[in-house]
Amino acid sequence: MRVRTGGRRHEEYDDDDGHGHQHSPAGPRVARLLTLPALALLLFPPPALGSYSAEREAAERAAQGVGTFPALPSGEPLDLTLAEFGSRAVYDSERSLKGRTVRLTGFVTRDDDGTWYVTRLLVSCCAADATTSKVEVRGADAPATDTWVTVTGTWRPEGTLGTDTAWPPVLDAGSVWTVEEPANPYEKR
Fold this sequence. Notes:
Blueprint: E1 2-5, E2 8-14, E3 20-23, H1 27-43, H2 51-56, E4 78-79, H3 82-91, E5 101-110, E6 116-123, E7 131-138, E8 148-156, E9 170-178, E10 186-188
Parallel strand pairs: 4-5, 6-10, 7-9
Antiparallel strand pairs: 1-2, 2-3, 5-6, 5-8, 6-7, 8-9
């Protein structure tokens, strides 16, 4: 029921025990409160996603279908993104990476057992939709977590193609170099 009092419009509501009470419009106050989170993000932007985000994502790699891939270019080492390397290592029935020397760049992440990975976050649109691409590195000491590195080495086939046993792919390191973080630290899908 709407009631006019003193030129201002109020609405009368009955609560659960039947007693009516009046409310004044709260719209402008609520709108001001809703701007606080947006203002906080503008004044204190979150840091770029890193190893914490990558470690949280479980290896949810369902079989996407094993098949063939286009031929790789000649020359070595072969510069690949982590996503390209991972796709070929896990799903390429021709095993085109076998015997090839590749070069991968990303940041260092680790498991609790000491296993380390060169990792990159892949985005379609923005950091909010980021997923992880990582390659286990063997045969080299791990730099500090979140350090950007370029790793050169050869693929070590493990597991059954197209299954979780082939994930994450493994690289036998020939060399590991510390590098500067790229201007765009994310790979595009």
